[in-house]
Design goal:
Order of helices and strands: HHHHH
Largest sheet: none
Distance between the termini: 75 Å
Number of strands: 0
Helix content: 40-55%
Strand content: under 5%
Shape: rod-shaped
Radius of gyration: 28 Å
């Protein structure tokens, strides 16, 4: 039995080739042009390939199954720099109550800062 010739087209490469000819082509234009060649792609897929080309060979994305950075907290939202969450405020209030008030907590924080531990 003879094998059928199944030459598969690399859709990503087809998009890159089209973009090499027309750098400012919009995704819808690329979808239409490749459709005329019998290559079916979505505008979202074209946008993904275009974004990958813009990113270049810089820092690769972590991708699925990638490792987390050391020291990261899993499952917890971290506050942005300068922003405090309600949960953090409640924890500070509880700590202040356990230490005998806000003035005691401030004194402890000042001591930490002088020791260089903050």
């Amino acid at each position: 039995m003879a094998k059928k010739s199944t030459a598969k087209v690399n859709k990503s490469q087809s998009i890159r080739d089209y973009l090499a000819k027309k750098k400012n082509a919009r995704p819808a234009e690329i979808v239409e042009a490749l459709g005329k060649q019998g290559i079916v792609v979505s505008a979202q897929f074209v946008s993904t390939i275009k974004t990958g080309l813009k990113r270049g060979k810089g820092k690769p994305s972590r991708g699925a199954g990638g490792k987390r950075k050391a020291g990261g907290r899993s499952g917890r939202k971290q506050a942005s720099a300068g922003h405090v969450t309600v949960a953090q405020l409640l924890q500070v209030r509880t700590l202040a109550e356990r230490m005998g008030g806000v003035s005691q907590l401030r004194a402890a924080l000042d001591a930490l800062e002088q020791l260089g531990l903050s």
